[in-house]
């Protein structure tokens, strides 16, 4: 079993400095006011992942905007590129290709910005899908594992440096994701590091009811690049949960919040300055190894997070998968 040639470089970077991952892909797409024609027709409108086919220039521009802001890691435009999600647009059969092409695009752009002093990396975004085994039902463990296998294989073929199971809402879904990833490794004969990020809802647990301790415990046996929290809320609400995860985790810890809570119109209003100040307290407390932005964040949020991270020591006493 071989590993990606950039794996050692990625692990070294994570061990030696605080890293910054990019901001929201969906927000960036929404801010561009695209119409049905941009998505390839009304039947595909809203399928952000299909833009890798119809408007790759838009996705490339978004990647560049976050790299220009100083992000160390950018995510592929594949949050919903599992067959089960793409089936809503009759695109399930395109899943592997969409993941592969999105990864190749992101990797090409990241390489343009990489330097020996600041290498850039690509995370293969693997979202929670529209099904949760414990809550919504409508999918079996085996079906979900097979979908994640398809997605992971495409991302690896496209050249990602790591796989990121993010916005995780159910630990059983995560287990299915990890099973699918393991199958992709076996199929392709090569591995990349894996990271997992959960989403703690305002009620204080994942959607399926697990708290941060249960979430971590369910994953502590894995060889993870990092574990973290993203989405659902702004950074202030995450304070206790990030503190708890930092106290528990033998892995690096990531904090990737939304730009606050959405208002009644669905808008996110936490300014880059406020987010950087709040996340900066987590940095100063030594709780995190990686920071970034989720829903509602734009390149300016990332730019100020890069400034916040500059020169700060990494969280001590960790092991990176």
Describe this structure in words.
This protein has 321 residues and is of the alpha/beta class. The chain has one domain (2-309): TIM Barrel. 42% of the residues lie in helices and 12% in strands. It has helices at 7-16, 25-30, 51-54, 56-68, 83-86, 95-113, 141-158, 171-188, 212-217, 235-248, 272-284, 299-309; strands at residues 2-3, 19-20, 73-75, 121-126, 162-168, 190-191, 194-198, 227-230, 253-256, 290-291. Strands 2-10-9-8-7-5-4-3 form an eight-stranded parallel sheet. Strands 1-6 form a two-stranded parallel sheet. α9 (212-217) links the parallel β7 (194-198) and β8 (227-230). α4 (56-68) packs parallel to α6, α7 (141-158) packs across α8 (171-188) and α10 packs parallel to α11. The longest helix is centred in the first third of the chain and has 19 residues, at 95-113. The protein starts with a strand and ends in a 12-residue tail after the last helix.
